[in-house]
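Let's study today's protein:

:::
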Amino acid sequence: MEKTTRIDLCVIGAGRVGTTVSYTLAEKELPNIRLKAISSRSMESLNRAKKILGSKAADVIFTRENHKAVSLANCILICTPDDVINSVCSDIFKEKSKDFKNYYAIHFSGSKSLEVLNSARAAGAEIASIHPLKSFASIQEAIKSLPGTVFGVTYSSTESKKMAEFLVKSLGGEIIEVENNKKPLYHAAACVASNYLVTLINYAVLIHKKMGIKPEDSLKGLMGLVEGTVSNIKKMGTEKSLTGPIARGDVGTIKEHISSFNEFFSKEDTALYRMMGIETSKIAHQNKWIKESTAEELKEILKE
């Protein structure tokens, strides 16, 4: 953005993402960005956001009325749940008599396309989407770790691209561009890497639980393994970080796994292990660590 451009922001939605973004932009006190208002249907969320912003909230208006927040801004950040972005945007831009030229409407959904902002575009505003590839389980932790986060950016014009890039830079993030019609796939990848990772570790804990190991003891032991693996992935990428019996071609060990599963678990409880094993054997074969015949043998064992 040009240095002379003054950006007055309002954030719609005081949940974890909205509050993290609000705090980060307010805390930096950038000369050409000013957080003017935060709106939310929930008074509890507004009070929490006000408390977290602390002294940074002195000049910020907290309101339950989206239109009041929007009246103070020229850049509207919509951080609501995905399924209400369209209706929230439509309500904000329903005033046909107002000229929204030189306004920006930006949503933070990873899966929703720019079409949910069509009412803003029809009113004359520039539209874009920026989505942090980050888990927001805790606002405080998200605030600490937001710098360096990669954001998926989707835009509709050169102007909206400039604004999206400027905001990501202001948040301390890095950018990858995401095609509008492929946003669901982009978001699916994020779900696999984050949400399904939780499910996968929970599955390992449940296996231990069947053996009589307490979940807290299991998690304590497994997290060292998980953290070491993540560290390896950061250094070497996914494929070269693979270790374990399948990477070594230890067919006998996998047979022992399956035999124990068959003895102590239902068929349904082994489905995830089998599916992940087949996918893992593909990686090992791609790495040329196991022969094609070994990969096929593993596939047959895991398919049974």
User: Anything to note?
Assistant: The radius of gyration is 24 Å. The mean pLDDT is 94. The first helix runs from residue 16 to 28. Residues 193-303 form a domain with the N-(1-d-carboxylethyl)-l-norvaline Dehydrogenase; domain 2 fold (CATH 1.10.1040).
